[in-house]
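Example: Kinase-like domain-containing protein.
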Amino acid sequence: MKSEQSANSLTDEIVEEPGGEFSNTKVYQHLISFITQVEASQDARFRANLEILVQFMASLDPVWRLVQSSAFRVKLLKISAILGISNDQRLRDELHKDDKDLAQLLVLVASSDVYKKAVLRLKGGSAQNCIDLIQDILDKGSIPSGDEPSIMKARRLLVRLSEASDTLPSSLFIRGVSRLDKEATFGGTFGDIYRATFEGQTVALKRIRVFQRDSAQHKRFCREALLWQRLQSPFVLPFTGIDAESFPSFLCMVSPFMRHGTILKHLAENGNANLETRLFEIAQGLAYLHSQNIIHGDLRGCNILVDDGWHACLADFGLAVFSDATGVTHTSHHGGSVRWMSPELHYPQSCGLENFQRTFASDVYSFAFVCVELYTGKPPFSDISHDAAVMLRVIAKERPPRPCDVSGRTTMSDALWTLVQQCWSHDPAERPSMAWVLELMQDGNEELHLIPPSTYLQGLPNTPPGKKQSFQVHLSSRRRPKGPGTTVYQTLSF
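Written out as structure tokens, the predicted fold is:
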């Protein structure tokens, strides 16, 4: 009797909330069905309250079903504990089925323009609930791994909601970070880097210098954290979490501390040792990003670090975007490093494009300039003082000269120099994919080997440079025929 009364009080507590538009889709129907089969749940009042509870959830539209689902799950599990069935394996099996149903509901919402607009209007606790749910579904892998388009839709919706609501998943926040230095170890354009410790390891805290809610910097922080968190490659700086305790009113992104610093510093201290190997690692890191449908957007020497094994790691994803975001989505993110930016980012019309839009091709262009930067130890066009003048030269199809030493002897191999020239072609469609870049680098240098086996390259095309690609690159390797006037690097609308 006592357990029935407790369960009744829980169901009474839930049904006080208002409902919405009717829909037949149910949430946690497998768990509910299992609960109703328990003998202790046969009390008439309990079953009536449970029926009201089910009707309440069924009355919500898909968006609000997602928002309310976590609270609904907690209440049902409390009821299960009272009924003495919380440790039953059958309960966990039913929850697993319900997780997959929730994932299908999320895909439904992420595939509808109407529902996506409703999601992006969420604020406060509702936005937090929805963000935490999407993050949890992605973490659990509840969307089938073979359904890459649906996974990408969920990831894009998570990023957009985070930016719109200035909210991040609760699971990304970590506790127990201890700052080691009062002063920043390094200062960049948008933020500062501090040394700290976390779980016995030295880490770096990246603190954004201006951090106000609803600010462009805050939205950039949210996007960077969410894109970065799922990247796993030996040539990409690992993401540890978000620290909210070290600096009052500031959030910090946490990553392993790279004591060797940037690739520029490392090469200068070690006489450019194994330079082409480091470039090959950078190419692998960039190819991995592209296989994940992510464009780095700001590739340059200062954003490439060196780990304890002397391997190159791509860092700073503040301008990173999904590859199928539209030019409109990008308009608030026109920043970047002028000397490494492709001509279509300076003046789209010079390349036959209508809008500013970062693409895989613009990353490939930046890679070419990183090659020259690392061989010379200087920024591209180092003889030109003003960025505006550099921009005009790039638009006029001028490029840096081949790197050479003080005696005028070339330092870059013929094979790599040929590849660099292909990568910085004025026409974005003439630039090779990063998968092809890796093959060409290996063809030119037998000592270069993919580490580890590059399974992440399966979704990238191997079209020789100079040939137009006739399909769209996607993570799932699905190929989309090219429409009139399009190229491989023009992408789908968000």
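DSSP finds 17 helices and eleven strands in the chain.
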